[in-house]
Amino acid sequence: MKPESAAAKYVLPPAVYSPQLLEAVVYDLEVYLDWYRQSKVKKQVGATPDPEPTHSAETVVVIEAWLAGKPPTLESLEELIETLKNLELPQIHVMLAALPNRAQRELLVNWFRNNTTPQLLVSFVADRNLGGGVVVRTPNHVYDYTWKQQLVAGRDKLAGIIKSV
Amino acid sequence: MLAVVVIVQSLQLKKAKVAQAQMQAQPKPIKINEPTAAELEAKLKTAYEGKINEATQTFGHDLEDTSKRLSEQVSRLTTTVIEEELEAYQKTLEEVRKVATQAMEQIHEAVEHQRVELRQGMEAELASEKKLLADKFDAKMGDVVASYISESLGSGVDLGAQMQFILQSLEAHKADIRKDLIGEA
Questions:
Q1: How far apart are CA A87 and CA B18, in angstroms?
Q2: Would you call B130 an interface residue with chain A, using a CB distance cutoff of 8 Å?
Q3: Which of A39, A140, A147, B4 would staple A132 via disulfide (CB 3.0–4.6 Å)?
Q4: Shortest distance, CA B172 to any CA of chain A (angstroms)
Q5: In the β-sheet with A133-137, what is the strand arrangement from edge to edge?
Q6: Per-residue confidence band for B85, with pLDDT thresholds at 50, 70 and 90
Q7: What is the overall mean pLDDT for chain A?
Q8: Half-sphere exposure of A28 (CA within 13 A, CB side)
Q9: How far is Cα A53 from Cα A51, in angstroms, rounded to an integer?
Q10: How far apart (Å, rounded) are the C-alpha atoms in residues A92 and B176?
Q11: Region of poorest pLDDT, from A19-23, A69-73, B106-110, B131-135
């Protein structure tokens, strides 16, 4: 069993960069634990256990980071789930003109984590109406650096151009 | 003798009286011969025609005088009536004209008032509509730009080409974002 201080110091692996991924990892772990308990009971009564459920690569990374080479136990996995559920990490929402590919996503996540906090969770949303640029929504502010915003901000110039035509 | 004469005369007188009385009781038809009758008829016709001519002339004169006077009277009466009627007509016409003029002035004033009010109302409404449209345009500016961008770019958004601009924008406002997330400058 991990000491309590370890849970407090737990650092989420960089692979889990968004709230959605974190929820998916927790779900995978809960499914796994459920399977683990049922398999244990079935083994005790001589029944054939169900096949082990699949889980994502991010879940594997999280478990490995949590165990740090130690063998998994039911208690440690339960504690991991509890720790993940109780994590209070800062979150931002990033809106782009299209959903980023893996490389672009990593680039942006790394930029945010390097320039703000390493435990930041970033969720991506796409809106093609933006044209280009990025909207960053933090809990308190919206930073709009999109082409649309720049065009709207320059409406006086646009009106002048339209009048001069 | 004398007495006899007297008696005879008395008898004659008496006889004459009786004869006269008989004559008076039974008139004796007068017999007129043809020439006399023709003469009398001619005289009577002449006299009758003379009287008729005289009466006709008199009646003609009277009729002429009466007609003349009547004509004068009618003329005078007609002139007077026409003058009075004309005067009354002119008076009425003048009153009507006066009333009509007043009514026209009132109508003109009312129309002018209405025109001014209408113009002011229309100007105010136009200004309001203009402001509304401008506000609406301002409010819809984001949608207009978004639609324009969306229609112009279509589905071909190249995020890789924008990455430089995105990172530059983030770098330019890094301090604000950091401060907002972790409370540090």
A1: 189
A2: no
A3: A147
A4: 10
A5: A121-126, A91-96, A133-137, A142-146
A6: confident
A7: 85
A8: 19
A9: 6
A10: 13
A11: B131-135
